[in-house]
Amino acid sequence: MLHTTTRTLTFYEDEGLIQPKRTPRGTRLYSQDDIKRASIVQTLSQIGVGMQRIKQIALARQACNSGKESSHKIVPMLETLEHELADRIAKLTQLREDVRRGAELIRTCWYCTRKPSRTTCPVCPVEASLNDSLTARLVWDPDRGD
Fold this sequence. Notes:
Elements: H1 6-14, E1 21-22, E2 28-29, H2 32-46, H3 51-59, H4 67-106, H5 125-128, H6 134-139
Antiparallel strand pairs: 1-2
């Protein structure tokens, strides 16, 4: 269901992030809650949130004596994470647009039969528009020297 390995789920269990029930013979039985918790842990991990931080968020509530204490502890952690995610989203959105512009620019050479270099194609439309996409600049003629 999560498209992950048994080892990953065991790791989440070892870290205290999920607590599957067990049959008398030791087979793990994952509840819907276990699956939902593992899913968000997996997602956060995949986008680069460290496991220590995930554990800090996930396990903070149980270490508190009241809802007031837990909310005052957890909300700032989640707000900080939200701001960091917003920053990442903005950067990813900008990068996505740059990659799209790069592909669009490079697509202008789709039917070009010249060797792809500055010297063999002096009227290259990509060469003329390299400042429009950092991605195109990455791909295009890395020995530019300028």
